[in-house]
Amino acid sequence: MSLVTPPTLPKTGIAGLTENWRSDLLSGFLVFLIALPLCLGISMASGFPPSAGIITAIIGGMLVSRISGSFITINGPAAGLIVVVLGAVQSLGEGDAMAGYRYTLAAIVVASVVQILMGVFKAGRLSSFFPASVIHGMLAAIGIIIMAKQIHVMLGATPEKGSLFSTIAQIPHSLLNPNYEIAIIGFTGLIILIIWSLLKNPVLKMIPAPLIVVLAGIALARYFDLEHEHMYLFLPDAHFLPHHEETIGPKFLVAISDNFMASFYFPDFSKFATVEFWEAVVSISLVGSLESLLSAMAVDKLDPYKRHSNLDKDLTAVGVGNLVAGLVGGLPMIAEIVRSSANVNNNAKTAWANFFHGAFMLLFVVLFPRLIHSIPLAALAALLVYTGFRLASPKEFAKVMGVGKEQLFMFIVTIIGVLATDLLIGVAIGILAKFIIHILRGVRFNNLFKIHFVIEPQANGSVIVSIVGAAIFSNFMALKTALSALEEGKTIIFQMNNTYLLDHTVMEFLHDFEHSYVGKGGKIVFLGMEYHDTYSRHPLSARKMKPGNMMRRKTDHFGV
Question: What is the pTM of this model?
Fold first, then answer.
């Protein structure tokens, strides 16, 4: 019988650079082509100068890649933080955009210190406390907010100031009364992104869609002469449309200094003692840390070499990157999933691909700032609208519904909560909904935050893990820690005869643990699962003990 030889792991450090520089350099360049327009778009949508996103990508690539605990993740600004950062700029600035920007930089600096401390004290595992459906609901709500705001930019329209729901309500008016030239640029970008997502040709797929969108946008901007302020009458013979005469010009292009050194700004800590400042700090550190940890775990699953990131070290590195970014005028960064996925697809081997992506970004802004200025805002808005749609697409609703109706309920409750209040309150509402569901399903109050389990090594070398009561998102941290300390290569038997309830978060964790442990030469056996009813057909759906099957609990072990 032939044994399959596992692939040789790429070296790290300088040895990894020497061994893999060709593949990492190419991947870094291709990721840079994707990242540049996204960095600009995310930065402006966040209320920051366009250069702020580029500063962050440079730091995320050149600094964080050298100290992070991951292998092929790409660090940079992300769409998921747009809502948090823009909210901070608006609440702290009180109408003064530049003041709000500098106050928010101070909040990023303080939030980064919180992130560093979370990494040092190994708080990376706290990401498990947030139910998957609540996190997906938060991201879907962020997608809706991004679309609501960026559709107007894509159409060259300016909605009246008001609440988020007011901005959404004005979308039909903007669609009926666009600046036609700008709307053509925006819709062209959107159509390119849709077509590219449907392409099957691997050669064409190698060309990054954001690059095509930007090049098409630049070409159309030249055609419409956006470099110069002038009146442009769309359909000049159509006298029945006189109100569509619009002023177009450089205001519809990216505004960036020719001198990159002029792009640096410094934080203003004068609002340090205000409630709004600390709301921004908590939002940036919580959402940024959660997204970064979840992205790093997702990228690990894509890694062909099955390497596992050191999440605490990664969180510390991202915190250090955010500290530097906040001090010089950059956006907060995370381990970004879209660019990281592209990095994997481009055959990157090590963290040097992240370094090269940052280095290419630095070279470009130093050598070609005028080219950045020729990019139309509508093209970048199209990228963000598409990104927002992917976060909140019908597929996401269907995916959550497939796991179970209660997951869809929490997903929708979180979305409504975020849209009606803010991110932190919305996530808290989603978690509260999850607790209520668990209590209605019979989970005791003393079991909500405490899990009851025993790990018993056997004489034959196997290990029995017996779980009694409920194993749910808010109590399984102790089990997760205990399992991580088990010796590799053993046979672990999970005894579920007395497990009353397993929620989706715990089922997902057990699935990932099994995949990881077996991959390292161990064996996992689950006993007692046949005594449970599932809440949906999804293999990882929540499950509850069937009536009549609950065995007598072993009070001598657990005292419950």
Answer: 0.88
